[in-house]
Amino acid sequence: MADSIPEDPPIPQHIQKDREGFYKLCERLLHEVPPSSTQDQTGLAGYALLFLRIHEWDVGDAFSTSLTAWDSAIALAGEYIDAAVAVTDAHRQRQHAHGHIRSAESQCGFLCTDVGMHAVAFAIYRQLDRERDAADHLRKVLDAATISEQASMSSELLYGRAGYLYALQFVRTHLADADEERRAEIDRIAARTYALIIEDGQRTSRQWGLDHRTPLLWQWHGKAYLGAAHGTAGILTILMRWPELAKRYAPMLQVATDFVLFAIETWTFSVAGASEGVRNWPSSIRPVVSEQGDSPLERAYGRTNLFQFCHGAPGIGLCALQAHATFGNRRYFDVAVRAADATWVAGIGQKGVGLCHGVAGNAYLQLLLLRHTEMTVYADRVRALTLVCRLWESYTRNGTFRLPDHPWSLWEGLAGAVWLLADHLSYEVCVAMRDSDDAAASNSDTFGPRGFPCLSDI
Ligand SMILES: [Zn+2]
């Protein structure tokens, strides 16, 4: 009797359903903002990055089967990045003809400047074997070192040096194994950028009269923001992700992290039926010097009612998770758990499903805790939040959500929800493969979501 060919295990029903939901959102995104759309260049590079990630997350046939209807995820990423590069070049030429420099050219963050687009272009063109284009865009990322070294440059994530460090790490992970020369060049630039961020943090902490509380504090547009997008928590998260450099500055980084995580957590509001209120972190702090000359922080808080990646607990929790990975102390993990609980109690907000201040962004802390603990409570929360993402249109129509400024973009709109659904689906597929004893899925490096997009995911 001939040997029978072993059949693939059946795909669990919940994965089938989540896959359908993911495809549906993807198709809507492709319909609304196809690569041929004349979006601004930032939006297009974001979609390119989304489809690059979907390509990279491919575990077995999880994504490719249905994506073949639109060619492949990496081909889509190529179309989007071609469009982003063309739109940016045209815009640049127009502006230069009038003697203007675009702001996206004069800053160096990954998310909101040309640096991110060049970094994403490098990674995609490498995947597509367009080596000459890839080298051209890599050079532009490395040349942006001169922008990051300007004295007036901020250290913030979206536009400044912390974002540049992310861009360097991003291109570093996409280098060919043999490209030692480029890797060494990236490491030299990163060390300089890192030192400039530290100097800026020390200077600002002294300026704000808070150096007796924290050795590092950063400001952006005149405010000492604390959150992940513009503030100290986001910058510290990035700094902790360069292990060699973080070791050099470890005592300083740890005191500054403890300041953010423990000294300025505060009560915000009470919850019906709960014996305790919900804690949050203020969006920023102001130095308030009392008659005794000290700085009573409790009188110095900015808004404490924001629960979103950019301001408040959902982003601070990501910093806590990173501190747990870097310093290894359980108390950091406990802060992440408290931040996730507070975020859950605070609800879905009114700002849509994007990553920066929407549901997808807030879901990430739950998703990362799910990966760490595999506890049902996080699985249930993530499932509920992905369902909200899938129902985004009804929530927008009934007025629960306000329409964001960029309703389709990765950072503010539907593309952020697609990212979450894809990452969650990839995690579920990994779990299913592991549970069916597939050796390929037991490698913890490839298992599930690595971190928050464009902050801690590489
Ligand atoms: Zn935001």
From TrEMBL:
The signal peptide here is none
Gene Ontology MF annotations: metal ion binding
The answer to whether UniProt assigns keyword Nucleus to this entry is no
Alphabetically sorted, this entry's keywords are: Metal-binding, Zinc
SUPFAM superfamilies per UniProt: LanC-like
Q: Which GO terms describe its biological process?
A: carbohydrate metabolic process; peptide modification
Q: Which Pfam families match?
A: LANC_like
| A cellular component term, taken from the record's GO annotations | plasma membrane
Superkingdom is Eukaryota
Entry's CDD domains? euk_LANCL (cd04794)
Task: Please report the name of this protein according to its UniProt entry.
Answer: Lanthionine synthetase C-like protein
Q: Where does this protein come from, organism-wise?
A: Thamnocephalis sphaerospora
Q: What is the lineage of its organism?
A: Eukaryota, Fungi, Fungi incertae sedis, Zoopagomycota, Zoopagomycotina
